[in-house]
Amino acid sequence: MGIYIIRNGRFLPHQAIILTKKHAFPDFKLEKIINAYQKRKLHNVKNSIWELEVHPVNFCQLKCNGCSYGSRHSGMVINFDRLIDLVNYYNKSDLKTIFFSGGGDPSGWNRWEDFVERVEHNRSWHIGTSTNLYNLSNMKNILNKIDFYQIHVVGYDKESTIQECGLDVFSSIDNNIKTLFERRKDNQTITMKFLMRNQNYTELNYYINYLEQFDCDSIVIKLEQNFLENKTLNGAINLQQVRETLKGSHILSKYDYLLDNLDDPVFNNPIPRSCYIAATGLYALLRTNGDLFPCVASPYDNKNAYCNINITSDYSNHLDANYYDLKMKNKVCPLKACRHYRFDSIIENYLNNKERRLEDVNELEPTLL
Fold this sequence. Notes:
Layout: E1 4-7, E2 16-20, H1 32-42, E3 51-54, H2 80-91, E4 97-100, H3 112-119, E5 126-131, E6 148-152, H4 158-165, H5 170-183, E7 189-196, H6 204-211, E8 218-223, E9 225-226, E10 231-232, H7 239-247, E11 257-260, H8 276-280, E12 283-286, E13 291-293, E14 307-308, H9 321-330, H10 339-351
Parallel strand pairs: 1-11, 3-4, 3-12, 4-5, 5-6, 6-7, 7-8
Antiparallel strand pairs: 2-8, 2-11, 9-10, 12-13, 13-14
């Protein structure tokens, strides 16, 4: 049985090609947000966040091409005790996931083992991270405690890695990735991600050959974009050549689905009436400096923060949905830079009775928003 190809479907991320196995397929469906929205908003579940995203550090040893954070690194590390206090606060509700991302590279955080030790006995939620895995030493003793990984692939050999991130670190990162796969447990999910740019897309076949050796649950090949200015940066990429490269690769035999959203420019989508993610309180983003935000793109304006956890332990404003929905509308926010922007469109259609008969919605309980 061959791979099932879906083009221009409603999937995350936009302007990407995704290879995924059947069990991981629901993670990419936009409709998964309706499940979370129903349970939180329509079932009157209060004081309840679905996902907390955390930037534990604001530094990274690599200087990767296309990294939107590279010019904004401050060297800051999150206040560990205040993070634990916030986690304990959300742990009283039906928290689903804490996801460590950047900012900087989360594998550079030297409190991984301390964090897992503090929360492991009292958690029913998932732990995930997005990382280049350069600093495996900080995580080596708790690798199998993390439920899902998103690994950023910065090269397929020594030369390509130097070209992409400026350092000769291929051997180190390659060994770290292999260690992760060797130690993985059956219930752990690993996604490999590759940022495809004008300068490297002709090397896609080499990246695919490199990734083929790993038993990934999914592979995401994402086009480079400038989210803050709402514009694409990949005009020189021949999308048909990308498709032909994948079509001729043996890697397709390892996956059940190929999701082709290369022609999906999110910047052309209409703006929803509301930032439903912020209004419902489904999600919060904690930046390294302690600022707590209601959606993934809201840090574009620091005034969108709920509070700073280094200053206050009163997080109750998070629950004032009407206030923050209005506040988000009155502050500068690059909505089209936001993956939640696409969720908002799905929720809006749902509220307009256009999505009431979605199949298998109840089975699409997401870990990540």
